[in-house]
């Protein structure tokens, strides 16, 4: 069951019939086959189909949903992240700037009553929490907020590092940005049900070794707040609850070493899903490899966002398409001669030859990583495999992106 309940770890399905594809359809059939292993040594959160944030136990898959429309989005795979803010909820453990008032017991995005209602009599009033950080490193601050009463002249909430450095000044009434700090590299907000939104800002720490994450309001404002987070990286991952000390969420690893359905000589893979950010220099959507070296897989490049295809070579070949965070795409690889010959296509485009290839002895297949590294932040809608090499036209047709999009 997805959404309101946690998924079942293992459910058996009929064996794959040779000559027909096997496909993980995490939208319509969310389960993890018995021959696969999903490991994560900590709890982790996800959006359910009821729109609420739920907590999955260690080693339990997370099948995520859109928090506003409640539509399923697929299997959520994330790298390791740590929330550096010791108290993720307000006001315990937070210092005050000015004289804000707060009332606890507000219904929060996770269905609890751990939200706080904050009133700010003067502009710049609110709460802040200090954390140790590394220099010249990108961090992302995030918080769930909801406007209750408009301010006297504006409804601006300041989030991030104050002093005009790593902050975003965001109007909760108009959803417009009034100011961005000088070291901000990205910002955004994700709408939820019941008027909540998750506001976030990513900034470079520069020479700082300590940062104060601020949540300030404008004069006369009343707003609800819950679930503050400060994590290393350029995007907000699933919320990590803390209560007295920072907490680390372990990475998800989903792999199988059952190669009984894989034709090592030739085959075709098609991935459908989305990336969010990059980690460790780049990330793989999937990979068929020997557990040590590059294999056959789809990879997102750090910085440019271009999607590359690998076929056991030292470098990948660009599909010619860059994807933004959260943007759905459908990419495939068709290989022959154990990977020595391969083509790739994305979103129905004409197939391209993968220029640098190598011979593969496949030992494992992974979703959201490659040979135990390059952990991704992905939402996987599906991964399909055919035990034969598709031609150029057939591969382009198989990667055609069909609505609905993420």
Walk me through what this model shows.
With 406 residues, the chain is an all-beta fold. It has two domains: 205 residues, Jelly Rolls, CATH 2.60.120; 168 residues, Galactose-binding domain-like (Jelly Rolls). A hairpin with a 4-residue loop joins strand 24 and strand 25. The protein is elongated.
Structure described in brief:
The protein is mainly β and 406 residues long. It has one helix spanning 392-398, and strands spanning 22-25, 37-39, 44-47, 53-56, 63-65, 72-77, 81-83, 95-97, 101-106, 115-120, 125-132, 138-149, 156-161, 166-171, 177-180, 184-191, 197-204, 210-217, 221-232, 247-249, 253-256, 267-275, 282-289, 296-301, 306-311, 317-322, 328-336, 341-346, 352-353, 364-367, 378-386. It contains one helix and 31 strands.
Low-confidence stretches: 1-19
Query: Approximately what portion of the residues adopt beta-strand conformation?
Result: over 45%
Sheet with the most strands, sense and barrel status: 8 strands, antiparallel
The total count of helices amounts to: 1
Q: What portion of residues is helical?
A: under 10%
Number of strands: 31
Rounded to the nearest angstrom, the distance between the terminal CA atoms is: 20 Å
Number of domains: 2
**Radius of gyration, CA atoms, in whole angstroms:** 22 Å
The CATH level-2 architecture of the largest domain is identified as Sandwich
Q: What's the CATH first level of the largest domain?
A: Mainly Beta
- Class by helix and strand content? mainly beta
CATH fold call of the largest domain: Jelly Rolls
Q: What's the mean pLDDT score?
A: 91
* Overall 3D shape: elongated
């Amino acid at each position: 069951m997805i959404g309101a309940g946690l998924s079942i770890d293992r459910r058996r399905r009929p064996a794959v019939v040779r000559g027909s594809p096997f496909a993980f359809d995490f939208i319509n059939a969310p389960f993890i086959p018995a021959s696969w292993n999903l490991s994560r040594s900590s709890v982790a959160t996800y959006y359910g189909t009821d729109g609420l944030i739920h907590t999955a136990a260690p080693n339990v898959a997370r099948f995520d949903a859109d928090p506003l429309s409640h539509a399923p989005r697929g299997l959520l795979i994330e790298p390791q992240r740590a929330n550096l803010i010791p108290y993720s909820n307000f006001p315990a453990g937070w210092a005050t700037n000015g004289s804000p008032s707060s009332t606890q017991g507000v219904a929060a995005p996770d269905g609890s009553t751990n939200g706080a209602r904050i009133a700010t009599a003067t502009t710049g009033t609110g709460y802040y929490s200090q954390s140790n950080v590394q220099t010249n490193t990108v961090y992302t601050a995030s918080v769930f907020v909801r406007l209750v009463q408009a301010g006297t002249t504006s409804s601006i909430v300041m989030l991030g590092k104050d002093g005009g450095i790593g902050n975003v000044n965001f109007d909760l009434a108009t959803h417009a940005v009034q100011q961005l700090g000088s070291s901000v590299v990205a910002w955004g907000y994700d709408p939820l049900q019941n008027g909540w939104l998750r506001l976030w800002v990513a900034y470079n720490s520069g020479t700082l070794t300590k940062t104060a994450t601020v949540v300030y309001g404008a004069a006369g404002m009343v707003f609800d707040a819950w679930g503050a987070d400060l994590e290393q990286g350029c995007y907000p991952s699933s919320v990590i609850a803390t209560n007295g000390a920072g907490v680390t969420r372990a990475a998800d690893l989903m792999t199988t070493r059952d190669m009984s359905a894989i034709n090592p000589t030739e085959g075709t893979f098609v991935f459908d899903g989305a990336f969010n950010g990059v980690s460790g220099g780049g990330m793989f959507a999937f990979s068929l490899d020997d557990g040590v070296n590059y294999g056959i897989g789809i990879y997102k490049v750090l910085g440019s966002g271009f999607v590359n295809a690998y076929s056991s070579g030292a470098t990948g070949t660009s599909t010619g398409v860059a994807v933004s965070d959260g943007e759905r795409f459908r990419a495939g690889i068709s290989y022959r001669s154990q990977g020595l010959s391969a083509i790739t296509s994305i979103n129905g485009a004409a197939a391209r030859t993968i220029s640098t290839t190598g011979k593969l002895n496949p030992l494992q297949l992974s979703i959201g990583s490659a040979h135990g590294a390059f952990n991704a932040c992905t939402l996987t809608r599906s991964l399909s495999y055919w035990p034969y090499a598709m031609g150029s036209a057939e591969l382009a047709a198989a990667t055609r992106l069909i609505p609905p999009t993420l």
